[in-house]
Structure formats: structure tokens, C-alpha cells
């Protein structure tokens, strides 16, 4: 019924790959198959070569049947496996949080490079806040890179915080997570002049840009973490910058991932709020993707 030659791992692999009819890019099929076989069964491409007689169980094949149906419906691979890699660490992901992107790795690496290159004598523990943490990839990665720093992170939903907190635990790093809806005018429990860095990857895709996005993103990833209205695309930046003015110590920094078309507007907003030493930086594709500024 399944048109499966045998339950040997190579036969199952080829059978699974041949059934990805609705996944539009055939060149992605080997990556998808390799990722699924590794995440589900710990089987690598090397295993398939070195252990050609290795067999999968009936329950394993049932799992693959379900996974293939979900892939052919357009569901992202990372939500099916429940895992995504970011800067060498593995993170749990589900539809409450965005799937981490390589562009965001660039934001973390930029801040990390600046922190490592700083000649400042740290007479106190540096404190970094990740606003809108999502799956926690920024906060957890910084905590792993800088174990002596105090890393805080927040988001507006307990379900999101649960994912981020789980990711801190599985990566064995301490991060202080708390609830905070930046769009609600409320007293966030952060003392004035108490932070060294605020970093954020807030929603920045304009509604009109949906036409350029893939169906699996639009139908499965959380819209609240992606989209902003065309008539006010910087609403999250405005709120974060306004609050960061009070949270940051003198000389502290703010780092953002930005819409490639919004570098000029973000620069003007930061200048208008009294920030200086503003710099826009490019991602791996040469697009204006990041901005930093100093209080």
C-alpha cells in the first residue's frame, strides 16, 4: 500500500523523498529528508552508508507518513521536527514562535563582536535585555557566549515565554524571562539606568510585503511576530526606543534587526530620541538589516 520496497533505511529514505510531491523546490528535498531522519531517528547520511542494513520499525514509518503529509500541506519542517539550529545550538520551536533566521544570527554576532572588542573595564555584571524574545534564540545565544553577563528577556505571552525558558534549560544557560507587552502603556519592572544593552528583532514586515512571502510562512508562522501596518511600520521600534532611553545607562547601546527599506527612518527616529553613534549594518545578502545606536 505504501509502495515501500523494504524497511531498510535507504529504501525508506528514497521512498520518503519520492513522495514530497507538493514541496515546491526539489533541491530542498535531500535537506528535508536528512533533517527529518536525523531529528526523528538520529540517522545521518553517514549512517545510511555505513549501516545499509539498518531497519526502521513500523511505528517509525507511520511517523514518516504523518510528517510527509504535513510537509505536502506546506507546514514548515521546523514545526514538524520541533527543532531549529541557531549559532550552533538547538532550539525547540512551535507555531507560537517564529522559526529563527540566519539574518538574526548576524545581529547576535554583531553585538558579540562589539562586546568582545570593548575595552571597558567591567566593574559590574553587564545587563542585556532582549525585547520580544520569541523562541529565545538571541537571549540564549548571548547567555552562552557571555556567561558572566546577566541576560534578561521578555515577550507578551506566557506560551511564548514557556518556549524560550525551555530553550534556556536545554542549552544550560541562565536567562531571566518575564512577561512584557511593549505596546501596552504599563510600568515595566526595569529600573532606570540599569541596562547596558537592549537588543530586539521586533515585527517589521509591512502588510503590503506579504505578496513577496512564501505560503508556508503566511499560513503557519505567527503573524503577530512578523507584520506591521503600512501606515505605521516602526510602531514597535518607537516604543522600544522610548523605554530604552530610561532603561539604558549613559553610554549604553541599542541594537535592532530592521526592514531593509527602513534604515533611514530608524536612523531619524533614534536621532530624534537623542541617541548618537548610529550605524546601519548589512546582512549576509548585502541588505541593510541591522542598526545600533548609543545613549
Mean pLDDT: 94
Largest sheet: 7 strands, mixed
What is the highest CATH level, the class of the largest domain?
A: Alpha Beta
Low-confidence stretches: none
Helix proportion range: 25-40%
Distance between the termini: 66 Å
How many helices does DSSP assign? 11
Detailed description of the structure:
This protein has 295 residues and is of the alpha/beta class. The protein folds into two domains: 9-73; 87-294, Rossmann fold. 39% of the residues lie in helices and 19% in strands. The protein has eleven helices and eleven strands. The protein has helices spanning 9-18, 29-41, 45-50, 58-72, 77-81, 102-117, 137-145, 158-170, 215-220, 235-247, 263-272; strands at 83-86, 89-92, 127-131, 150-155, 176-179, 195-200, 205-206, 227-228, 248-257, 276-282, 288-294. The protein has a seven-stranded mixed beta sheet, with helices on both faces. The chain has a two-stranded antiparallel sheet with strand order 1-2. It is elongated, with a radius of gyration of 22 Å. The termini are far apart.
Amino acid at each position: 500500500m505504501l509502495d515501500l520496497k523494504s524497511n531498510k533505511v535507504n529504501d525508506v529514505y528514497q521512498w520518503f523523498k519520492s513522495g514530497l510531491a507538493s514541496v515546491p523546490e526539489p533541491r530542498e528535498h535531500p535537506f528535508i529528508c536528512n533533517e527529518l531522519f536525523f531529528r526523528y531517528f538520529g540517522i545521518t547520511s553517514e549512517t545510511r552508508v555505513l549501516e545499509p542494513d539498518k531497519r526502521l520499525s513500523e511505528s517509525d514509518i507511520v511517523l514518516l507518513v504523518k510528517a510527509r503529509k504535513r510537509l505536502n500541506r506546506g507546514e514548515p519542517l521546523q514545526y514538524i521536527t520541533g527543532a531549529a539550529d541557531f549559532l550552533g545550538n538547538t532550539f525547540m520551536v512551535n507555531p507560537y514562535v517564529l522559526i529563527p533566521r540566519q539574518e538574526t544570527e548576524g545581529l547576535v554576532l554583531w553585538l558579540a563582536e562589539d562586546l568582545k572588542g570593548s575595552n571597558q573595564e567591567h566593574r559590574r555584571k553587564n545587563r542585556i535585555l532582549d525585547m520580544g524574545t520569541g523562541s529565545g534564540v538571541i537571549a540564549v545565544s548571548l547567555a552562552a557566549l557571555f556567561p558572566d553577563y546577566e541576560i534578561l528577556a521578555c515577550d507578551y505571552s506566557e506560551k511564548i515565554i514557556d518556549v524560550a525558558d525551555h530553550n534556556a534549560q536545554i542549552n544550560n544557560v541562565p536567562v531571566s524571562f518575564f512577561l512584557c507587552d511593549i505596546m501596552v502603556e504599563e510600568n515595566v519592572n526595569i529600573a532606570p539606568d540599569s541596562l547596558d544593552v537592549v537588543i530586539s528583532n521586533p515585527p517589521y514586515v509591512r502588510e503590503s510585503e506579504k505578496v513577496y512571502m512564501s505560503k508556508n510562512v503566511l499560513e503557519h508562522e505567527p503573524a503577530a511576530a512578523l507584520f506591521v501596518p503600512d501606515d505605521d511600520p516602526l510602531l514597535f521600534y518607537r516604543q522600544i526606543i522610548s523605554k530604552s532611553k530610561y532603561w539604558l545607562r549613559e553610554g549604553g547601546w541599542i541594537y535592532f534587526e530592521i526592514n531593509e527599506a527602513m534604515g533611514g527612518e530608524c536612523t531619524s527616529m533614534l536621532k530624534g530620541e537623542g541617541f548618537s553613534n548610529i550605524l546601519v549594518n548589512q546582512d549576509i545578502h548585502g541588505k541593510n538589516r541591522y542598526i545600533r545606536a548609543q545613549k
